[in-house]
Amino acid sequence: MATEESIITVGEFKRMLKGCNDDVELYFSGLDFYRLKMRGDKLLQVEFNQQVYRNSEGNIVVDNLE
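The structure corresponding to this sequence follows.
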C-alpha cells in the first residue's frame, strides 16, 4: 500500500514538468515503464515491468518479472 509521503498529485507532477519540452526524456532509475493505471476514482498508479514494493522492514525491493 502506498504511503502518504510516496504520493504526489497529478497537478504537482505537472508543475514539476512545467517548462520541459515534449521531447525531454523521463528516466526511471533503471526501471522499465509499463503503463499508467487508474485505481479507483482518485489514484493513478505508475506501473513498471519490475515489481517494486516495501518489505516488512520498510526497505524498497525491486524484482525483475522477466
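The mean pLDDT is 91.
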